[in-house]
Amino acid sequence: LNLINREEVQNRLNMARWINLKGECLAMAGQQEAAIETFERAIAMCDLMIAAYKNCAHVNVQLGKIEDAIVLLKAAEQISPTDTDRSLQLGELLLKKGSIDECRAHFARLRSRNRSYGKDTAIDKRIADLFVRHDLQRDAETIYADILDNDGDIENYNALGITYRRQGKYREAEECYRKALMDYPDHPTLYYNLAVLCFVQNNRSEAAKYA
């Protein structure tokens, strides 16, 4: 029975791969609705066919069906949560839907998973960028502050300083830039950002000096 069950699952998976490939061809041909139906057939054939969930979600996004795409990506995450790009896409869709708290919890799990694998800060940067693009500066600030604890790259200093400025935290922004100048005393972007910071506070003479 165990042998038969394994073969049965393998056969379903093989068939699901072909059906998923058919769905990809339909999607490339511009037949999105037919592609969705085909991907759903692949999932029904074998509910472990993760590629079909992801492909079906992608086509749903193209058609503006954000909630349907979220359901599919959540199902894929339940099967295997190791696809970082898919996890980032799910978080971005939650932001577009306006499910901010759910997105925060999702990204917190993704960051924790990323740290447990000993990976670098690239994922954190992408998450922070998504928060910035959706005007969630406080969330981005928290992540960039964490990043700087491990990676004192000039871009991270600049990103944190900008998120401070956009929130009106001018003192914190200035402290961030001045701290960065200790490590990068000749970097023009830091002086430019200091000039902008002074300009928005109507300190034109200081802005001109830094410029």
Gyration radius, in Å: 23 Å
Mean pLDDT: 93
Distance between the termini: 76 Å
The helix-and-strand class reads mainly alpha
Helix content: over 70%
Low-confidence stretches: none
Largest sheet properties: none
Instruction: Tally the beta strands.
Output: 0
Task: Quickly count the helices.
Answer: 12
Helix and strand element order: HHHHHHHHHHHH
Explain what you see:
It is a single chain. The model has no long low-confidence stretch (mean pLDDT 93). 31% of the residues are buried. The protein has 12 helices and no strands. It is elongated, with a radius of gyration of 23 Å. The chain is mainly alpha-helical. It has helices at residues 2-28, 32-45, 50-62, 66-79, 84-97, 100-116, 122-133, 137-150, 154-166, 170-183, 188-200, 204-210. Helix content is 82%, strand content 0%. The termini are far apart.
List keywords for this structure.
12 helices; 82% helix; mainly alpha; 211 residues; 0% strand
Summarize the structure.
With 211 residues, this protein is mostly helical.
What's the layout of helices and strands?
Elements (H helix, E strand, L loop, with lengths): L1 H27 L3 H14 L4 H13 L3 H14 L4 H14 L2 H17 L5 H12 L3 H14 L3 H13 L3 H14 L4 H13 L3 H7 L1
Helix pairs in contact: 1-2, 1-3, 2-3, 3-4, 4-5, 5-6, 5-7, 7-8, 8-9, 9-10, 9-11, 10-11, 11-12
